Amino acid sequence: MAFLLGRVADALLQERERWPLWVPVAIGVGVAVYFGMPVEPPLWAGPAMAFGAGALAWFGRSRMAVLLPAIAAAALAAGFTAGQARTAIVAAPMLAYELDGVEVAGDIVALEPLPGARRIVLASPSIAGIEDRLPAKLRLRVVGAGSDLRLGDHVRVRASLGPPSPPSVPGVYDFQRHAFFEGIGAVGFAYGKPVVLRPAASSRLGSWFDGLRLAMTERIQARLPGATGAVAVALIAGAQSAIPKADLQAMRDSGLAHLLSISGLHMAILAGILFVGLRAGMALIPPLALNHPIKKWAAVAALFGTLFYLLLSGAPVPAQRAFIMTGLVLVAVLVDRSAISMRLVAWAALVLLLLRPEALIGPSFQMSFAAVVALIAAFEAAREWRRRRMVDAGWTLRVGYYLLDLSFTSLIAMLATAPYAVFHFNRFADYALLANLLAVPLTGIWIMPWAVIASVLMPFGLEALALAPMGWGIDLMLAIAHGIAGLPGAVAVIPSLPMAGLVAVTLGGLWLCLWERRWRLLGVAGIAIGFATIPLQDHPDILVSGDGRLMAVRGEDGRLLLSSARAARFDADLWLRRSGQDERLAWPDQDLAAAAGLACDELGCLYRRAGQVVALAFQKAALEEDCAVADLVLSLDPVSGDCAAPLVVDRFDLWRKGGHAVWLSEGRIEILAVSDTRGVRPWVVEPRPRPKRLVNSAATAPPAAPAP
Fold first, then answer.
1. Looking at the predicted structure, is the pLDDT value of residue 85 above 50?
2. FRET label pair with 166: which of 20, 186, 422, 451, CA 20 to 30 Å apart?
3. Can you give the pTM of this predicted structure?
4. Helices and strands (DSSP H and E) totals, the chain
């Protein structure tokens, strides 16, 4: 044991230059610990941990065996504290019940185009009949709203409102938590067009960028209609909401969806165009080039250009990471220092995790950093090989190496993001390498340069000159996406990667990428262990959504059968993907129902599996018989206390606790509700009956349960 510990210590000492790269990892662990807690910790918890770790580091500074763990603990405490601080800063009330046909008013602070509609966000809203605990913001879908709505307008509209959606069943993505950190306390749709009570009068910088983004969106869509203009808006202004569903799905299925998100590729292209173009232009003026540091001037201009692009795009997480990295490279030019790429990633991760810790648990952060870290590690390993071959290479070999680099880049990025794509989306684009080989050069060489030119020409009303050729490139990119997505077997639907598997893959990947010496290969074992957990995932036998609109049972062949082929399509697709299933099967098909152990009539179904009998009661009339024969009753109606079934989940349970998942085995039934997995946190909305003063509303929330 002493020999093994000595070898590990020697390896760590040899890699001491890489130690700082693990600081963001420790911060990320602290963030993950905070978000994984079942209850909100006291505000002093994070600072107390940080103080204790700092004190330990100070008193143990002369002993490396004490100092390093203390620094790691301090970084973990910093991540934990960042999560607490961010939650406290954004905390705002969230609506806890449904309201229909209620009058709302507020200031428009966000306005996004949708196919056939618009989505608006109202800040400081008023809701008729509600005087306290008003949400800070609410989001509405508005059908038929014209272009006369402007950011900053104070509007009034009649709408249907409710809390942001919680997970439909345990374990799926929490959109309610996402809305909490966006400041959204209620969502819904408007009846009719909003009435402008007071035109916009705001002069905030953020409002100015929002207005500019909207104006550019309208100008682009006026000259490039349909999907072409929607993709152009995504590339220039960062808004993907107007892209038609079929085109967006084709981009995802072909592995090209990353091209629609403003990230490292787009930021690097923009910075490169500005830096190289301005430097080359100034070099043509001899007095300027000979007497002034034009390289640094070009770097400053590129830095401000990329900052403008970041703010214009609305600063999504990939764009923030890309800007930090690009900005550090440009700052390195200003101070005559060479940039160290992996340290740039570490700095970008550190800044993002401290400022926006909630980003860690989203797919954007995970996939973005996984791709960049893996690419830098791969090119670091191949640096000497590439340098030796590029020394005497002619232009034909250089073109060949460029294509090889492109293939290598696409392959590494695809493999690095695959675990997170499987975990969040359960989809893997089998031909992503081919699609990226075709579309990435097209984007970098043709589409993005024209996007920059169009943005420069837009103040002069000449953007059409650049948007037309940009549109040709976008049309070709969409054609590539549809062509690749239409190939047989273009998409593999893979069952969910368990959380433990994702953690193992992540830690294994970090070990592989952050170290330099051969012991890094131990990370491959962690990755393999993580993927090996996929077939070990124990999928539930029964799923019920919180609103009772959808149920699903698992057949003997492992496939899910849905209670309806049309209801709750989003939830249905999510459940099927997590089971690795792309075929929508509904149990009204009698043959399928019988094969799955279902016996149904118009009142409900009996489901038999693993020696257990479960009654799925759709109507109250079924309860008398079901309670007498079933081991578990799942009822869409309230169930009285005289039901003889050992276990009962009724309408009130679904309303209070959310969607349910059920596992059946010989002699045991395990039930897990959404509320069991979310804990008591600020972003968890506990459903409440609507206040008595609002009983005349057509709200759909159930009344309070009768007292026991």
1. yes
2. 422
3. 0.85
4. 26, 17
